[in-house]
Amino acid sequence: MNNYGVFGNPIAHSKSPLIHRLFAEQTTQHISYEPLLAALDGFPAAVQEFFRTGSGANVTVPFKEQAFALADQLSERAQRAKAVNTLKKLSDGSLLGDNTDGAGLVNDLLNNQVQLAGKNILILGAGGAVRGVLEPLLAQHPAEVGIVNRTVEKAEQLAREFTDLGPMTACGYDWIDAPVDIIINGTSASLSGDLPPLAATLIKPGHTVCYDMMYSKDTTVFNQWAQQQGAARTLDGLGMLVEQAAEAFYIWTGLRPDPAPVLQQLRAQLE
Ligand code: ATR
């Protein structure tokens, strides 16, 4: 039996064990997948200990940057993200670091028939969560990705770093009001129930699709705002969570589970 798990602190409420157990059931794999609590100053030691027998692990807050630093090899998207959410032990015993967050976001959008090619996309926020998804988003060939952030320098820095992959711009919230096709909220504002200072005109009623990378039982503050402005659709990050897990499961096992029934079960549980 192969052992997997998810590192984090805290980790008790992680949905990853349930998601991966459902994937394993679906694909008739005999695996174990456990929450792995690491001390805040003990992540490298915990990883070393786990991989004496472990085959792969997910990594969540606050260890993604440390996982990036300790991986022996990195995928292109992990290098760009400067963060790792998936570790895999290779046959020579070394650790491969990958990042499936962006693929999770892109796959969830595509599952929901939101095409990205040729679209004007606005991303709110310029922290780790946004950095993690830019490479896979740009690989879909959008017309433009604009990054808007409270601290404009951070948006400018990200735009500079990723501009070789596609057309990017950066700005502050009070500089933009022209309607866009897709708005993705990657700020941590939702966590505290806050809303970035957005112009209502960014939304073209009946056309603009809004995606909140956060999820909650009730509609997020950002998605409530989007609905009030007449957004064509609003989606939250629960689908991204399941899809990033499916991508990790594929990296470990070579099998692609069907995320749809797992998402349905999680949504029902949340409600
Ligand atoms: P994460 O790893 O979740 O991305 P982070 O790196 O701390 O966390 O980044 C949080 C992001 O949310 C930042 O872009 C932050 O804006 P600043 O860079 O200006 O701090 C953004 N953010 C947090 N609270 C916000 C709020 N109330 N309004 C607008 N942006 C907010």
Describe it for me?
- The protein has 271 residues and is of the alpha/beta class.
- It folds into two domains: 2-99, 3-Layer(aba) Sandwich (Rossmann fold), CATH 3.40.50.10860; 102-237, NAD(P)-binding Rossmann-like Domain (Rossmann fold, 3-Layer(aba) Sandwich), CATH 3.40.50.
- 37% of the residues lie in helices and 20% in strands.
- Helix 1 links the parallel strand 1 (2-8) and strand 2.
- Helix 5 crosses helix 9 (238-253) and helix 9 (238-253) packs across helix 10.
- The longest helix has 16 residues, at 238-253.
- The two termini are 33 Å apart.
- The mean pLDDT is 97.
- 2'-monophosphoadenosine-5'-diphosphate is lined by residues 125-129, 149-151, 154, 187-189, 194, 196.
The number of helical runs is: 10
Return the CATH topology of the largest domain: Rossmann fold
Relative strand content: 15-25%
Helix/strand order: EHEHEHEHEEHEHEHEEEHEHH
Sheet with most strands: 6 strands, mixed
Low-confidence stretches: none
Total strand segments: 12
How many domain modules?
Answer: 2
Give the N-to-C terminal Cα separation.
Answer: 33 Å
What is the overall shape?
globular
The name of the CATH architecture of the largest domain is: 3-Layer(aba) Sandwich
Topology:
Elements: E1 2-8, H1 16-26, E2 31-37, H2 43-50, E3 56-59, H3 64-70, E4 73-74, H4 76-81, E5 86-89, E6 95-98, H5 101-111, E7 120-124, H6 128-138, E8 144-148, H7 152-162, E9 168-171, E10 182-185, E11 209-212, H8 221-228, E12 233-236, H9 238-253, H10 259-270
Parallel strand pairs: 1-2, 1-3, 4-6, 7-8, 7-10, 8-9, 10-11, 11-12
Antiparallel strand pairs: 3-5, 5-6
Helix pairs in contact: 1-9, 5-6, 5-9, 9-10
